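re: that chain from earlier
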Amino acid sequence: MRNSRTLLAVSAAAVAVAFSLDPAYSQQRWSGGDTFRARDPGVRGGAAGAGGPLSGLTATQRAFFEQGLEDFAEEEDVADGLGPRMNLDSCGGCHAHPAVGGSSPPVNPQVAFATKEGGRDRVPSFIQRSGPVREVRFVRNPDGTPDGGVHAL
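^ sequence. v structure.
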């Protein structure tokens, strides 16, 4: 894709978040033998805080953020490099709530995307119109080591 560097950076951040939210990765043994268990703090109060740049960016960093935000929200098509395996046609489509850069919107866009422009794709049973955006990831490699990647079936 023409925006491959931006998409690579966004993908790397998404994978890091996915690992931090996956129960298989949130329980780790520390050298002292204690097990750390992640705990959901619940719904946060106050402003959402999504979609904007970090404070204190230089002018150059701010320009990179603005360009990345534009690329993140842009819908791609086959001519741009969109291939047969994708979740949606834009990063911002799945990361849209409460603002671009956030998490799943209230209505899952993957369901409508399956039939966009006459498409005949079927969505898996675990993807629901009123459910969160999801991506199938392998928890472990065949040898038992941690994975977390998306693979062709």
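The helical segments are 4-21, 23-26, 59-73, 91-94, 109-113.
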